[in-house]
Structures are given as structure tokens and as C-alpha cells.
Design goal:
With 377 residues, this protein is of the alpha+beta class. It contains twelve helices and five strands. Strands 1, 2, 3, 4 and 5 form a five-stranded antiparallel β-sheet that branches. β4 (330-331) and β5 form a beta hairpin. The two termini are 32 Å apart. The relative contact order is 0.14.
Amino acid sequence: MPRALESMQQCFWGMYPSTARTPSFQPPTIITRTPADETLFPNDSNCRRFSQLSSAFAQRTADRWNGSKEMDYLNSLISKWMPVGAERVAVDSHPRLSGIMDTINSTLAHGPEVRLPPEFYDKKGREAIDKIAVEEWFSGYKESAEYRSVGIGGLVGDLVSRMTGSVERNGNDGLLEVGGKDDELGKGRNNEEGIQFAISGCHDTTLAAILSSFGAFDGEEWPPYTSHLALELFRKTEAPRTDIVRGRTSFDDGVRVKTANDQNQSFWRSLFDRAKNQNLQNVPGPEGMARKTMDELTAEQKSKLDGYYVRIRFNDRPMTIPGCKLAGNHLEGDESFCTLEAFKRIADKFTPKNWKQACVTNLDQPAFPAVVEKAGY
């Protein structure tokens, strides 16, 4: 979405202002996906099963709260400004309660010129709106493994793959996606051979979905404006460092041979024929852990994860994952530092093998699990 890309741009400029860049500073690589392939937010428009699940959990919230005393209180405050013929505020009213919340938060972020009548900012009313909206949008991640899988599992799988790729140093840390000099993949523009930092422009629903799926969002309010989530990978200084795996991190290994004709192609020809010209279908993918579950890894692969830890920070506040509190699953003395093995085991449980396939599976099945499938373990 354009606004997410613009937010990322503003963040990047804040971290690397023009006054702090040297002449050799290269433009960053920006990777985008088509809407049908996007996993940076819960993509209900392009995932039928997730659309079913999210609608069911939203309806459950409406059934639970529309006739409540909290909703009656909200109506006493703001129903007079609802559209004619739809005066009652409800979870599923028009506009929806969550849409009213977005409007309130937006006006608070943009100053007095766009403020609504004071009743919209009533403290008790805002607390009720927040509580109900959080339940509507994020309770599914806390209760259903399938909800987690089709809602945010694709993105979490990408993130964990980058972590294990950083451990193995085989290009799966994102290096294979980075365009270097002359359009060659696998090296940065200054011949960097490892990804140290990546930033993604996403949404408030992305942040809360990730936290909820790891059981780390209990009691939290809706993510405020300018919220961010940092997923950090640490290595103990005494932990062994894997050598870079050569031959799998670039197309400059004999698979693709550039010719003079490459330089003469038109923009459109190069755009649409790139996959053909680079013979991508014959390029071997990087080997290693990637999307394999912990149970599928060899003993040698598992041993490579020793000494690595993951920490999640939400608006610079360390968050603790329930399953990481268990003995042996965290750094001694700090439960927020989850071992990479424990973190991956938890993520594996809701990482789909094929997200698109999962989106068209179970369409005739109930939306709610028979028993609550707790997140974070």
C-alpha cells in the first residue's frame, strides 16, 4: 500500500538523513509484491479462508458487545452523529466501530483543526472502543492456529527464514532478493554479503497480529500511531559463526551469462522477459533450513542454532513470549531473549507450507476450533 511505503521512506530518511550520507552511500533496495502475494498485512482480500475466519470472529464480537452496557454508553455519547437510518453505534454498524476508532485516532494525530466533537474523546468511551476493537480484530490469533497461519503465518515464516539464513549465511537472510551492481543478485551494491538490517512498511494490524500469534499481546491496547515492532537476532560471542556458503548467493555463477543484447533491450522487454532471460526456472534455490520445521532439521542443522537468541520489542518495550519462559528456552536471567530454536518451534506451528494453498483450504469447515489453541507455545 502506498501509505505503508511512504511511512517506510520517512523512517529511512530519519535514520539516514542526507546530511549523514557519504558520497558512496548507495540507494536502498526496495522490494514490493503484488496485492495477491502480499503478506505484510493480514490479507483478507486475497485469502478466502482468512476472510471467512476474520468475518466469523468479528461477528462473534458483534454478538457479544452490540447489546452491552458499554455499547449503550457509546451510543449515549456519539449516536447523534451517526448516519440517518443507522443511528446506533455497533461493532458492525456503518461506519463500523473500528472505523470510528480509526477516525478518532487520526484526528488526535493531526491536530485541533480536524477534531471531532468532544464526546468522541471521552476517556471511558475510548477505553470501551479500544477493548472491543482489539477483541474483534485480534482474538482469532490468540485462539486459533489456523487463524494465525493464514492471517500472519506467511510473514512470520519469511522472518524466521531470514533468521536461519543469517545463521547459515546461505543467502536466505534476504541476500538473494537484494539487487547489487548490474542487476546481479546475492550481493549488495557495495558487495555486502550479509543482511544486517531490513525494514518493512506494514500496518497496525500487522504488529498486533504478530504479537498476538506469539501470545505477547494480552492486555495491550490498539497499536498507536508511529508504532513499530523490532525482531532482533543475537549471537553469543562464543557461538561458532558459519562460513558463507558460496555458489548459492548470486546469479553470477555461470547460471546467467550476460550478452551484448541484454544491454540493448527496451525497458518493457527487459521487464517482462527478465525471468526468461535469467533462466530463473533452472536456478537452484538456496539449500538449508529455510521453511523446514525443527522436526525436519538434521542434528547438524539444529546445532547451528545454538547460541542464537531472538527478542521482540514493541515500541522499544521488550515483549515476552509465554513458551520462551520455560526452562532452557531463554537466555539465563532474561526471559525476553528467546532461544532461536524455541522461537522457531513456536513459529513453525503456524507457518503454512504454502500460504496460497492454505487460503483455499478448509472453506467448508467451521471457523472456530473445537478447543482454544493458545498462542505462544
